[in-house]
Design brief:
- This is Ubiquitin-related modifier 1 homolog.
- The protein is mostly beta strands.
- It contains one helix and seven strands; from the N terminus they run E-E-H-E-E-E-E-E.
- It has a single domain (2-92), classed as Beta-grasp domain (Ubiquitin-like (UB roll)).
- 11% of the residues lie in helices and 30% in strands.
- The strands form two sheets. Strands 2-1-7-5-6 form a five-stranded mixed beta sheet, with no helix packed on it. It has a two-stranded antiparallel ribbon with strand order 3-4.
- It starts with a strand and ends in a 5-residue tail after the last strand.
Length: 97
């Protein structure tokens, strides 16, 4: 299943400083959930410091997630069933000082 995954606000630094990714998720028996995608990203694209992206079974607080430009909080967060051609954006609001 093909989807678009983007990182912004500094989150791209954890993914090889690449903002845009065309992802082809492997076929599986059950639907892909957003929670499944988080761990797939960790295992396949994340290049540095997973603790800055994931916390427990979700994204770390301070990372906004948009699915097709809609806040994932309105779409059942990690339980959202990913659809073909979805666009998923991760925006970090975490900044050092």
């Amino acid at each position: 299943m093909k989807i678009k995954v983007d990182f912004s606000g500094g989150a791209e630094l954890l993914f090889g400083n690449q903002k845009h990714h065309e992802v082809d998720l492997p076929v599986k028996d059950k639907p892909w959930l957003l929670g499944d995608l988080l761990f797939w990203l960790k295992d396949n694209l994340l290049q540095d410091r997973p603790e800055l992206f994931l916390q427990d079974n979700s994204v770390r607080p301070g990372i906004l997630v948009l699915v097709n430009e809609i806040d994932w909080e309105l779409m059942d967060t990690i339980n959202y069933e990913i659809q073909l051609n979805d666009s998923i954006l991760f925006i970090s609001t975490l900044h050092g000082g």
